[in-house]
Amino acid sequence: MPPKRAPKTRRPRPDRRPRGTTVTRGGREDTREEPERKCIVSGESQPKAGLIRFCVGPDGMIVPDVLGRLPGRGIYVAADRAAIAKAAAKGLFSRAARQPVKSPEGLVDLVEALLARRVVDLISMARKASGAVTGFEKVKDWLVKGKARILVQASDGSERGKDKLYPPDGDESRFIGCLTSGELGLAFGRERAIHAALAAGGLTTRVVEEAARLAGVRVQTGQQDGGETALKDT
């Protein structure tokens, strides 16, 4: 009997790359698929996660679309308080929309409130999925056991109390401190909360992204309550 031939193997083409992969000028592959948009203030393009989307309402009024779901052509501004204020004051929204539009009074404050609500809602969802805890002892236990991915502490909590806990691996990028105790408490169904921790997961990734946008828009006033009561989650 003639010897059996080895089955043919199909060799991949050398120029075939995974779908969604691009190559930079230096030849390095970039697998990021996140689309970019241009900020109408700086003129720079960056990932959508760091921008605030606006659109023009039926009444010709600029509407912030923090969820990115409203219909119509999007107008993007960096998640920066000064940038949004400049876009409204200098008529940059009208230029980008190519039509006369109006900006509501207190646009920056409106964006801040919407982003804060978004972060609170996401943390609340993480809590319901058993991916978030509050309270000094519970947060400390998660940090010690390595379960905590992100440390969250209220901006108006006592520094003496907050200094007793550190972000995982001492990495400051794993720390969120732009929420007030009232906002953080709202996420856990409490009057207020000072300490919280988030476990790894998709919701946590979204919390980090939205908190970064909030931090860019919010004026950080620092410690507001240095009393002993600020040490407790109630």
UniProtKB/TrEMBL annotation:
UniProt-listed SUPFAM superfamilies: L30e-like, YlxR-like
Cleaved signal peptide residues: none
Superkingdom of origin: Bacteria
Region of interest (Disordered), ranges: 1-38
Biased composition (Basic and acidic residues): 26-38
Biased composition, class Basic residues, residue ranges: 1-16
Any one Pfam family match given in the protein's UniProt record, by short name: YlxR
Domain YlxR: 37-109
InterPro entries for the chain: Ribosomal_eL30-like_sf, YlxR, YlxR-like_sf, YlxR_dom
Protein known as: RNA-binding protein
Organism: Fuscibacter oryzae
